[in-house]
Write a structure and sequence with these properties.
300 residues; alpha/beta; Alpha-Beta Plaits; 2 domains; 29% strand; globular
Length: 300
C-alpha cells in the first residue's frame, strides 16, 4: 500500500447509469463503489485514488458519457482527503474474524482462541489485510478449502508465493496451515516491514521470506519458482495484466487464489487467466467482492 496522498472522486447519477459511470471513473482509481441514495432514484458513484487524479481527463470522460447516454452532465467532485492513516483508522478495534478454520484477531483480543482453529494475530497497521475486508476473508476461506487436498513441498522450492503481500496475512495463513516456507513480495517497503513484523509476532519468522520488488520480476520470486500455490490479493486490472507472468510461475497442477476484484470485475479477470490456459475451480463471493481460485492443468 502506498502512503501517497489519497484523493476522492464522486458524482451522483440515476440508478440505471451507475455501473457505466463507475467504470468510467474506476479506470482512473484504485477502488470504486456505488451506493443507493434513494430507492429507485439516484446513486452515488465514489472512487479513491492514491496521487492526484487527472481532473481534465476525468471531466471530459464523464461529459462524453453523459452526452452519449442522453442525461445532464453530473457534477464531478475531485478532492484530496485528510492525511489520516485510513487503514489503522478503519480497523481500530476490529472484532475477531472467522474464515474457515482461520481465526484472525488483534493483540487487544482478550478471549480464547476457538479449539481446532488456526490463529492469526494481525493488528491494524500501515499495510492492507486484517481479515475483515471481503477480499481478504474470501482468500482465507479459499485457502482453508484448498488445504484439504493440496500438498505443498516443505523444502521451500515449488511451494507458495504471496504476491502483493500487504500485511502478510495470506502468507501467514499458508505458513501456519501447511507448515511450509512462503515467499512474500510487495512493491511497498512498508508492507514488507509489516509482513516481517507479523511473521515474528506469530512465531513463524523463519518461514516467511518477505522481500520488496516489482512483482514477478523480483529475484527471490524467480529463485523459488515454479509454485504449487500463488495468492494475489491486489486489484482487478493488475491481476489481469499479470496473468501471463502468473502462469509462467505456477507449476502444472498448481493453484492460484485471486482477489481484490469487485463482483462486476470477475469476468474480466477470469477471462485474462483463461486465455493463459488456467481453469476456474472455485469462486467465493463475500459481499461486493469475489475471490477466484484457478488451476493450471497438469497436462497440455
Amino acid at each position: 500500500m502506498s502512503r501517497t496522498k489519497l484523493w476522492r472522486i464522486a458524482l451522483v447519477v440515476p440508478e440505471a447509469h451507475a455501473p457505466a459511470f463507475a467504470e468510467a471513473v474506476g479506470d482512473h482509481a484504485d477502488a470504486v463503489s456505488t451506493f443507493e441514495l434513494e430507492e429507485g432514484g439516484n446513486w452515488l458513484v465514489e472512487a479513491t485514488v492514491y496521487g492526484e487524479p487527472d481532473a481534465p481527463r476525468l471531466t471530459a470522460r464523464v461529459a462524453i458519457l453523459a452526452e452519449a447516454i442522453g442525461i445532464p452532465e453530473p457534477k464531478l467532485i475531485i478532492e484530496d482527503l485528510p492525511s489520516i492513516d485510513w487503514v489503522s483508522h478503519s480497523y481500530q478495534g476490529f472484532p475477531p474474524i472467522r474464515a474457515g478454520r482461520f481465526f484472525v484477531h488483534g493483540s487487544h483480543h482478550e478471549g480464547t482462541v476457538p479449539a481446532g482453529s488456526i490463529p492469526l494475530l494481525v493488528d491494524a497497521a500501515t499495510a492492507f489485510g486484517t481479515g475483515e475486508h471481503g477480499s481478504t476473508k474470501g482468500c482465507l476461506m479459499a485457502l482453508d478449502r484448498l488445504s484439504r487436498h493440496v500438498k505443498l513441498p516443505r523444502n521451500g522450492r515449488g511451494g507458495a508465493l504471496d504476491m502483493g503481500c500487504g500485511s502478510g496475512i495470506l502468507a501467514l495463513a499458508v505458513a501456519k496451515r501447511w507448515r511450509v516456507p512462503v515467499t512474500a513480495v510487495d512493491i511497498d517497503p512498508e508492507a514488507v516491514r509489516v509482513t516481517r513484523l507479523n511473521a515474528s509476532i506469530n512465531g513463524i519468522k523463519t518461514r516467511i521470506r518477505a522481500e520488496g520488488g516489482d512483482g514477478y520480476h523480483t529475484p527471490v520470486v524467480g529463485k523459488h519458482k515454479p509454485y504449487t500455490l500463488i495468492t494475489a490479493n491486489i486489484l482487478a486490472r493488475p491481476l489481469a495484466r499479470m496473468a501471463p507472468q502468473l502462469r509462467r510461475h505456477l507449476k502444472r497442477g498448481g493453484y492460484a487464489v485471486l482477489a481484490g476484484l469487485l463482483n462486476r470485475q470477475e469476468r474480466h479477470v477470469l477471462q485474462a487467466h483463461r486465455t493463459q490456459g488456467l481453469n476456474l475451480v472455485a469462486r467465493i463471493p463475500v459481499g461486493e467482492w469475489t475471490t477466484l481460485v484457478v488451476k493450471r492443468p497438469k497436462r497440455r
